[in-house]
User: What shape does this take?
Amino acid sequence: MNDITLFQNFDVKGGPELGRKNLPILQAALKAKGLDGFIVPHEDEYQNEYLPASTDRLQWVSGFTGSAGAGVVMQDSAAIFTDGRYTIQVQQQVDNTLFAYENLEGGGVAAWLRANVKKGQTIGFDPRLHSPAALSRLVSAIENAGGKAIALSPNPIDVAWTDRPPAPLTPIQIQPVALAGKSHGEKRAEIAEAIAYQNADCALITAPPSIAWLLNIRGGDVQCTPLPLSTAIIRKDGHVDFFVNAKKVSSEISQHLGNEVAIHKEEDLEDALKSLSGKTIIMDPDTASAWHFGTAENAGAKVKRAMDPVALPKAKKNSAELNGSAAAHRRDAVPLIQFLHWLDTDAQSGEYDEIDAATKLETLRHRNGGLKDLSFETISGAGANGALCHYRVSVATTLKLEKDSLFLVDSGGQYQDGTTDVTRTVPIGTPTDEMRDRFTRVLKGHIALATIRFPKGTTGPALDAFARAPLWAVGLDYDHGTGHGVGVFLGVHEGPQRISKAPNSVALEPGMIVSNEPGFYKAGEYGIRIENLQFVTEPQDIAGGERPMMGFETLTLAPIHKALIDTDLLTREEIHYVNEYHALVLREIGPKLDGEIFTWLEKACAPL
Assistant: This one.
């Protein structure tokens, strides 16, 4: 394995020492400014899920490395907010003598501010890091408590962070039209038409994935997501002002972008927004910051709050994108099946740990070819660690794959033609009857969502309960969404569609890729999740029906471990589904394998 340079490492990230070192520095800075407190969101200026090291301010001040969180730092106290996914992680990474642990869910940060800010206190915030809606709730909470909210520039963390890593500066690459399906000229014309339809003059695009899709470019500024950090304004005639560090733009990229895409310095965005006085500009309140809104509105622009006009076209994959995604999944299936074979043979010895497993899988992906990056750091969870649904293995936490336990692996790769994300749960040794029961109920929910038919206009929350019903029937559930959107050589978590309990008004449409990943987690013992990616199919008539129905077609190709299936809990139709799915895996991927691994796959895919 030593000839491979891994994309991931297993160093201990974050941790309480960061908070012990940096919290007093920030508190001293607040005192010097005469501020009583400061709000620290996880988000950066681009609303990234995965942050460049240079913008992970919450980690700097607290030591917390999760993908969702927030902090409030007062002169003599602090609080950190996380959701249910990070209950254990935050206790491991954040010193509870410095930070009170609070919940993001329910009232979250706003409720805490309302209860804890004292009359006359001043609380600072960085308007570049908050959406206008989120900031409005925070400011209202502060003011209702009798305090005053103050916008700060520069961010006091940026001033105090003397050893801050440099901003990423990765060259931009072209995403070929053969994989994108449309030239960026065609895409710009489509978006321009949507802008004109809304009687607007232009749209501000602040989400880097939207810009990457729109201009058929990719980058490397963000770990696991091939993004060039940038901002753009697209006008109703299709012309684009592209605000990006020029050092990322080669002559080839300039030629690719052409005369209708003007390249500007990042710092020129403020003047560009101020120049829109009297114009109507579309801004997405979920992705653009309060600073963007304030700058444009204060300059006299009319801001129309609406969804990023690129978001839906990006989510509805065209045939080239779907074909590329299918090819990426077939490619990714080879190392994945090689890895599952290893888990079922060598790894049964109990000698290997979670790091060995994650390293083995990534190495196989590298050797198979075409891997540009991981789509996220591998979740390699043995035993009790498998119950942490967003677990990240490190040298401090790694466990052995012990006999008579479960191992959960959630992983994915970035390929130029597609992004993969797959979870499998494998027994090490002999599973208990309870494990098999829970696994089979998760499988029943997975099958229900894979085979569901639904009419036009159906949203993700309407489907979510189908995946949970077999668990609900016996008083069980899981605390994460059932499905998220996935990009094409873009983000592994992509909106605006999703399948979850949370409200979402975006209807599922043909071409949208979503995950199907019900699970079950028994704290301190084991975790179970089965995840495939699937895309929404075109509506079709059903014999005897009155309305055409859409459905899903599965992209992921890897066997589901039959030793964990209790066939007595499955219906005839569910058994048929498993057998047909395994026959597909064997038919598509079997010819790419040989020897012992092919023989193993034949057995793994044999009918129930």
In short: The chain has three domains: 16-160, 173-314, 316-597. The longest strand covers residues 405-411.
